[in-house]
Amino acid sequence: MPTPDQQRLIDRVAAHLDADAGVEALWVAGSLGKGQGDAFSDIDLLVLAADGQAGELSARLARDFVPAFEVVLLNSLYGGRVLSMVTADWARLDMTLAQREDLGRYDAKALTAVFNKGESSPAVQPDTSYRTAPEQLLKLVREFMRVLGLLPVALGREEYDLALSGTDMLRQMSFELMLEENGIAPAKRGGALHRNPLLTDEQRAAFRALPTVAAERESLIAGNTAFAQLFLPRARRLANEIGMVWPAELEEALRRRLLNSLQLQF
Predict the structure, then answer these.
(1) Cβ-based neighbours of 224, under 8 Å, separated by 6 or more
(2) CB neighbours of residue 232 within 10 Å
(3) CA quadruple 100, 101, 102, 108: dihedral, nearest 10
(4) Closest Cα to residue 206, out of 175, 248, 241?
(5) Is 14 exposed, middle or buried (0-12, 13-18, 19+ CB in 10 A)?
(6) Residue 37: what pLDDT?
(7) 8 Å CB contact between 137 and 243
(8) What is the pTM of this model?
(9) Residue 78: Cβ-neighbour burial (10 angstroms; 0-12, 13-18, 19+)
(10) How do residues 248-260 score in pLDDT, each as one tens digit?
(11) Residue 116 in 3-state DSSP?
(12) Among 208, 206, 235, which Cα is nearest to 148's?
């Protein structure tokens, strides 16, 4: 459920949109729309524009919301289809403008209706199980190996700060792998800052056990080794489960590269 502050902002925005002839319907989307939000959630709104008025509505809302809601940051994204805002008290508000033909992309189970002047609404979508496809996992594994293989370049040039970016990429790919392990479809993964509920206790413990990585040679080697030891066995196990052909030649070349250049083995 929204907090009182979140609900007050939703109500104020709803009153503003309800008075606009270019708006046909409004739903709360995102984690709050699913009933899974908390005090840290941003407010995601799905706005159904009246036929043929999406462009004009986007421009009008971008203009009017700044003074009406003390917006200090407004980003108009995807040709104005998404308006992302931050207010003076740092409330985060994202509005997606849809037309009737777009409603098929949304699941009514993940939305909370606020008002509807017409009869158009998203349908309830059937629940389907998700299992990563072999080609999807292979793409992730190859990219992990490619980034790991760049470590000798960064260390050889003493680009230790940049090497931290590579470590962050390995962390993100390890996280994506765990979501694939858990059978969580990309559309069900929610916001980037609300992922703990998607991991198991074992997976969270595995992340906590990883060493803190500093912009220093030995720390970077230790950190990259730890991520390789975390990612590769899990990826191989999942590959076996779904029938993915493991890129053995790429892995062998990677291991030779790291052994010959850094005496790194894992």
Answers:
(1) 148, 151, 166, 167, 170, 264
(2) 20
(3) 60
(4) 175
(5) middle
(6) 86
(7) no
(8) 0.79
(9) exposed
(10) 999 999 999 999 9
(11) strand
(12) 235
